[in-house]
Amino acid sequence: MNDSPLLSAEGLHITFPGRRGAPEARAVDGVDLDIAPGEIVALVGESGCGKTTLARSLLGLVKPTEGAVSFDGSPLRYEGRALKAYRKRVQLVLQDPSGSLNPRHTVYEAVAEGLRIHGYAGDERAKVTEALSRAGLRPPERFFLRYPHELSGGQRQRVVIAGALVLDPELIVADEPVASLDASVRGEILALLLGLRAELGLSALVVTHDLGLAWNIADRVAVMYLGRIVETGSVEEVLTSPRHPYTQALLSVLPEAGGEPVVLAGEPPDPTRIPSGCRFHARCQVLASGEAERAGVADACRGEDLAVLGGTGATRVACHWATASGR
């Protein structure tokens, strides 16, 4: 795997105006993130933490308020022709295949749509056949004239993946790619994504709330909370030795965790009112238990902001307590 990033976000901020004079919502509040060629990165966090907004920005669908996105060493430009060329190289796979497939279009039309949008001049039928085959729908010709309602959930997700593959992208952004599927099918789709990485050298950003999924598919994990990445590193390091209390809480509810699950107090804060200090401190079990006080960092937790973590593969954590205790 090449260490030079294929996709890179630097100092990314995305804000949305508040309603009726309310403060603006800081959906993404300072993020650095790199994805290397052939690397699978899992972006993990609760609903509302900003991970989907960050993913949409990396796709060029949301222009950042501050910061920049680069692809293959060149800044992402938001003009029509440049953006169209970029979206051919970076493709989106959505969570709900039923919602992303037009019920009036056959499988062939759904997969060929991207080729037609981008003015492909070659053999359309051959490209659609190849994409369906790579997505595991074989023999592909059997599926050409079928409609989404005639397919299983797993087959529909494979059609969505084929629609992304038909343009020969270098990176796929998969937003909760198996969340709507039965447990028996989830493993098949994850195995497919891993196989595509091995066969085609595809990179992927997998957006998920499920740390178990991250463990099964990712090389690296970035844990996001309230608009910022709070812990990042190789999937083995982060998920076997989590340092941030938020990561520890997310992992504690997995069946294989073994111990008592950590129940976090309350809901994540409103992104229009991000708290001072560590943005997790109001829900932090380490602060609530007195451990942060004993480590001499309780005041810092409540009042001192933490630096934005670097986007590379190095293991990093944004936590006063973890840093002070040498965790």
Automatic annotation (TrEMBL):
Task: Name the GO terms of the biological process aspect.
Answer: peptide transport; transmembrane transport
Which terms are listed as keywords in the entry? ATP-binding, Nucleotide-binding, Transport
Identify the InterPro entries for this entry.
AAA+_ATPase, ABC_transp_ATP-bind, ABC_transporter-like_ATP-bd, ABC_transporter-like_CS, Oligopep_ABC_C, P-loop_NTPase
Question: Record's SUPFAM superfamilies?
Answer: P-loop containing nucleoside triphosphate hydrolases (SSF52540)
Q: Which Gene3D superfamilies match?
A: P-loop containing nucleotide triphosphate hydrolases
Source species, domain of life: Bacteria
Per UniProt, residues of the ABC transporter domain are 7-251
Q: Which PANTHER family match?
A: D,D-DIPEPTIDE TRANSPORT ATP-BINDING PROTEIN DDPF-RELATED (PTHR43776:SF7), TRANSPORT ATP-BINDING PROTEIN (PTHR43776)
Family that this chain belongs to: Belongs to the ABC transporter superfamily.
Name this protein carries in UniProt = ABC transporter ATP-binding protein
